[in-house]
User: Fold this.
Amino acid sequence: MVRQRSIFSLVFVLLATFLISCGSPTVATVPPSYTAAEVAKIQEYIPGIQTVRDRSLEFQNLIKAGEWVKVGNFIHGPMTEARLNMTYIIPNLAKQNQAQARQISKDLLNDLVRIDQAAAAGNTSLAASKYQEVFADIDKFLQLVPEKSS
Assistant:
C-alpha cells in the first residue's frame, strides 16, 4: 500500500508540473507606439539615410569601374554621415527595436570596412558582394523606423 501511494504521488507531481508549465499565459507583444514628438525627432534624420540609399546605383557603378579613391570618398563621406544619423535615431526607437538597430549599425560598419579593405586591395568581387550587404543593412534599419504620421 505504501508503495502504491508513493507511485501515485509521483505521478500526481509529474502531472501537476506538466499542467503548470503548459498553462502559463502567453505574453502578447504590443507594437511600439511613438508620440508625435518622437516620430518628428526620428524623421529629422531619415532624409540623410534615404539620400544615401537613393545613391546606391552610383556607389555600385564606382565599384564596378574600380574607381577606388571615389569609393573611399563615398564610404567616408555620405555613408559615414548616414551611419551617424542611424546612431542619432537608435536611442529614440522603441526599447525592443534598439538592440536590433544597434546590431544593424554594427553590421553596416563592418561591411563598410570590408569594402574599404577591398578597395585598397583592388578586389572588385569582394567590394561588390559587401555593397549588397550594406544596402540590405540600410533597408533593414529603415524598416525599424516608425512611419511619418499624417
User: Anything to note?
Assistant: The first helix runs from residue 2 to 22. Helices lie at 2-22, 36-43, 46-54, 56-65, 68-89, 95-121, 124-144.
